[in-house]
Design a protein that fits this description.
Elements lengths: L1 E10 L2 E11 L4 E5 L6 H9 L6 E6 L2 E2 L5 H8 L2 E4 L11 H12 L4 H14 L15 H12 L6 E5 L7 H18 L2 E6 L2 H7 L2 E6 L2 E6 L10 H18 L1
Parallel strand pairs: 3-8, 3-9, 6-7, 7-8
Antiparallel strand pairs: 1-2, 1-4, 4-5, 9-10
Helix pairs in contact: 3-4, 3-5, 4-5, 5-6, 6-7
Length: about 250
């Protein structure tokens, strides 16, 4: 479980995150949704220590990450897998090399153990035939699956995904959503996904938090989102559905 206790973050006079309090449960897919500029990515960066919150705390299974020294945080970060918005693969490394990179950096595995782990992760995301290909030689969906394989290579307890469907067609987006959900349940991870994709909300949003102007306006199960009487959330859903229809026309 990840607990967020009243965190706030400002940049000068710009109050980006305002007293957010929530919990992300283990073994389910937790989504953070909202318009561009609502504070989603800053919120994620505060959770993983890329930004320091001005106030509040972040706890990983009761470990107070906010109050840890940088050296103490290294132990927590080894339990964290990250899927960045654009994949953030190393162009000079093969698919297998990208997945192996965290193992070389942070594990004490033998070369034989690393090879087995890379093969397992690539097989789990259905990329077992792409070992020797480079990122420039594979599709956007395959790059995202490579990023997911890399994120789970160290068998993390916590998985963060920043807009994993960005730039993908609807069919591939569904495949990525289903893959993340399957891995979350299979490995019992605490998964947090930053997204504005309403299809993800309906398909895999076991818990959803809606941000607007840096504040939490709604929280609940994805299946209950249409029952909300929150006007900001209703406007977001309407705008998202309208944009989806416009793109199809």
């Amino acid at each position: 479980m990840i607990e967020v206790k009243n965190i706030s973050k400002s940049f000068g006079d710009n109050h980006v995150i305002k007293n957010i309090d929530t919990q992300f449960e283990k073994g389910i897919v937790n989504l953070v949704i909202g318009r561009s500029g609502s504070g989603k990515t800053v919120f994620l960066k505060c959770m993983v220590g890329l930004f320091e919150p001005d106030t509040g705390e972040v706890l990983y299974d009761e470990r107070n990450f906010t109050r840890m020294s940088e050296n103490e945080r290294k132990n927590v970060r080894q339990d964290i897998g990250m899927v960045f918005q654009m994949g953030a693969l190393f162009d000079s490394l093969t698919v297998a090399g990208n997945v192996k990179f965290p193992l070389d950096m942070f594990s004490t595995m033998s070369e034989s153990e690393k090879k087995d782990r890379v093969e397992f992760c690539l097989r789990r995301v259905n990329l077992e035939k792409a070992h020797n290909l480079y990122p420039a030689e594979i599709s956007g969906g395959m790059r995202k699956r490579t990023a997911i394989a890399r994120a789970i290579s160290l068998n993390p307890k916590y998985l963060f995904c920043d807009e994993p469907n960005s730039g993908l067609d609807p069919e591939t987006s569904i495949l990525i959503d289903n893959l993340v959900m399957e891995l979350t349940h299979e490995f019992n991870m605490t998964t947090v996904i930053i997204t504005h994709d309403m299809n993800s909300v309906f398909e895999i949003g076991e818990k959803v938090m809606f941000l607007a102007n840096g504040s939490k306006l709604w929280e609940g199960k994805g299946k209950d989102i249409f029952q909300s009487d929150n006007e900001g959330l209703k406007e977001f859903i309407f705008a998202s559905e309208l944009m989806k229809r416009f793109r199809k026309s």
